[in-house]
Each structure stands twice: as C-alpha cells, then as structure tokens.
C-alpha cells in the first residue's frame, strides 16, 4: 500500500564541483530507483547549522514529496545512508 511521505534531506555541497541542481537530481534518481514516485521537489537553499557537525558549518536543504510503500522507504533510507553527499535525512508520513 503506497503512502505519501515528505523527506527533508540536507546535502553536503562542501568541495563539490557539481551544481546543486545536479545533486538534487541525483538523489531524486536514487529514490526513484527504489520505487518512489516523486510528486514535488522544493529546494530550501543553503542554511547554516547551529554548530559544526562532522566538519560542516552549512548544508543545502531539500524537501522531497513522494509516494512509496514502507518497504521502499526503508530501502531509500538505507541507500541514501551510503551516499556521501547526503548529510542528514528525515521522513514524515503525510497520510
């Protein structure tokens, strides 16, 4: 049973030559490979952290709205944990 989710993903853009749009698209592609059906992507921009986390002082925040079943969501989380460009990820079920 597919459910709607919202994810907040913070990307590590430090020292990365690729454009931010390419990074956002790469994460979206990884999510779609695991079976997610993306509805919308909102880029919230670069924001400073309250404290340095793992030698980073800021990150690029992106909201992804998508549909997936719970197993696909677990697969997405696991795959993005291995992605060095993803600093943080948080998921919220909408329905």
What keywords describe this structure?
4-stranded antiparallel beta sheet; alpha+beta; 95 residues; globular; single chain; Alpha-Beta Plaits; 2 helices
Question: How would you describe this protein?
Answer:
With 95 residues, the protein is α+β, with helices and mostly antiparallel strands. The chain is globular. It has two helices and four strands. It has one domain (3-89): Alpha-Beta Plaits, CATH 3.30.70.60. Strands 2-3-1-4 form a four-stranded antiparallel β-sheet. The protein has helices at residues 20-33, 70-81, and strands at 3-11, 37-53, 56-68, 86-93.
Class derived from helix and strand content: alpha+beta
DSSP strand tally: 4
**CATH superfamily (homologous) name:** Ribosomal protein S6/Translation elongation factor EF1B
Order of SSEs, N→C?
EHEEHE
Summarize the entry for a quick read.
The chain has two helices and four strands; from the N terminus they run βαββαβ.
What is this structure's SSE topology?
Blueprint: E1 3-11, H1 20-33, E2 37-53, E3 56-68, H2 70-81, E4 86-93
Antiparallel strand pairs: 1-3, 1-4, 2-3
């Amino acid at each position: 049973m597919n459910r709607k989710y919202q994810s907040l993903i913070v990307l590590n853009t430090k020292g990365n030559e690729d454009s931010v749009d390419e990074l956002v698209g790469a994460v979206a592609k990884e999510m779609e490979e695991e079976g997610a059906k993306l509805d919308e992507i909102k880029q919230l921009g670069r924001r400073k952290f309250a404290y340095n986390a793992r030698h980073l002082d800021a990150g690029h925040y992106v909201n992804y709205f998508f549909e997936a079943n719970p197993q696909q969501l677990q697969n997405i989380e696991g795959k993005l944990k291995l992605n060095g460009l993803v600093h943080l990820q948080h998921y919220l079920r909408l329905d």
